[in-house]
Amino acid sequence: MTNLIKVSDLTHYMICPRLVYFRARGDEEPKIAEGKEQSVIEHILLKELGFNLHRILGEDDNEEGTNEGTEGEAVKLVIGEIVDGVEWIYKDELKNIEKQFFEAIKNDFLCGIGNTEWLSKLRTENELAALERSYDYEREHTAVSEKLGMVGSVDKLIQTEEEIIPCVIKTGRCPEYGVWRSDRMQLAAYAMLIEDEFETTVQRGFVEYIRTPEIRELHIKKRDRALAFQILKQVYKFKKYLYAHSIV
Predict the structure, then answer these.
(1) Model confidence, pTM
(2) SS3 string of the chain?
(3) Is residue 32 part of a domain?
């Protein structure tokens, strides 16, 4: 199958089918809307922190035995290094952002994210942190399934001796309990892709709500898989209709 459906199409379809239409038309990466520059920059900064939690937590472990005056300073330096690298990693996304404006947003972000409350919540032990320390992860693993007619790039993929675990990073607000429905569906879609690629069964995944920060484990249920498969078929029919009627 040549016209593979992206996992991101599924999440966009859940929000609004028109988003899938705009992507099919070639508007997948529109210019940053006027007035939205700050939120886009903050999203990128948070996303990169999510990719580097192992570095932040690793530096925190190295601080054992330091005095109170230096506690947390090494962690903040690591966060600063991560943030400084963003303009090189996301060069295309930030190409129309003025340097001075970007620096101002970055400095404000560092002041807020380095506060004691955020760091103390991040330091709370969780299984994902332990898994990343033991096994590391592959960043932005792309999986393709011709059987499903779907492709997707999962933020993190952890492989242990016994299981393969997908993880997604979210920069929006965190639910009081559990995982948002759209995030459950997204993880289930990634699970199906990974199962086809590795000929295994994916039992669980993680969602990093990095803004809070909260790490939520999700046991992938049949209802999540059913929802992902249902939306996949809806998106396929939707795109087929658009192309058949020369709408895109």
Answers:
(1) 0.87
(2) CCCCEEHHHHHHHHHCHHHHHHHHCCCCCCCCCCCCHHHHHHHHHHHHHHHCHHHHHHHHHHCCCCCCCCCCHHHHHHHHHHHHCHHHHCCCCCCCCCHHHHHHHHHHHHHHHCCHHHHHHHCCCCHHHHHHHHHCCEEEEEEEECCCCEEEEEEEEEECCCCEEEEEEECCCCCCCCCCHHHHHHHHHHHHHHHHHHCCCCCEEEEEECCCCEEEEEECCHHHHHHHHHHHHHHHHHHHHHHHCCCC
(3) no
